[in-house]
Input
Amino acid sequence: MSSQDRTSSRRARILKISAVTSAGALFLSGCSSDVQKGWLPTEHDTTNHTGRIMDLWVNSWIAALVVGILTWGLILWCIIAYRRRKNETGYPRQLSYNLPLEIFYTAIPLFMVLVLFFFTDQDIRALEARDDNPDVVVDVRGKQWSWDFNYVNEDKYYSGVQVNLDGQEKDEAEMPILYLPVNKSVELQLNARDVIHSFWVPAFLQKKDMIPGRTNYITLTPQQEGTFEGKCAELCGEYHSEMLFNVKVVSEAEYEAYLATLNDGQLGAEYDRNTNLNPTK
Ligand SMILES: [Cu+2]
Output
């Protein structure tokens, strides 16, 4: 080995070591709580589902990073180890129709996709499972551009008015509020009065479309008291950005006290105004 070759192989080794070290440092420095939550805007037990969703998200990233580091490492290794040396001419030895290699790079990605599919499917089944006998049922109706909340079991309703974003601080007291009791199973029946909307509470990590003429469901159990922001997540017209609401998760006593302040009855499908579905209106 010439002294030139020795220098370049030492340089390659240094490069390799520093790449591995910086990847390791990046990984270890990432043990703060934000990283453990995958930067998601919630806590592990905000609802009975947030932990499961957070774990799927974080573990998918870990799997992606492991594959990424391995792939980047191999790319770097190839670039360095098989680079063109001085005095080399022509093409390097060509590799084609290498059956073991082709089976390898078909089987491995297929395996990775199947693993991701397995865990995603498992979690979606758990999230979508409906409760036969939920403690609280709320018929949520999206409308341009606000929300009606019908508390079905108690036969009470709340009718929301559009938030006014005029550049001022928005008045929380005037925002539509969905009250939910803590640690009770909730079924949200998602309906739209006019066009497609989408029910989204970022802290719950769940979002679902509200489609005219069809009811979608979100089943969950809030586990932490507090106020959580909600919004429409489907561009639904001119004032879509003002289609905001809050969710207040409160004690059962506070929930009952709140319901007592509401009017009796329901604002049901009779107030929908999609002319395709209700030709008489
Ligand atoms: Cu909307």
User: Anything to note?
Assistant: The chain has a mean pLDDT of 90. The helical segments are 3-29, 33-36, 50-81, 99-128, 252-260. The longest helix spans residues 50-81. Residues 40-83+95-129 form a domain with the Helix Hairpins fold (CATH 1.10.287).
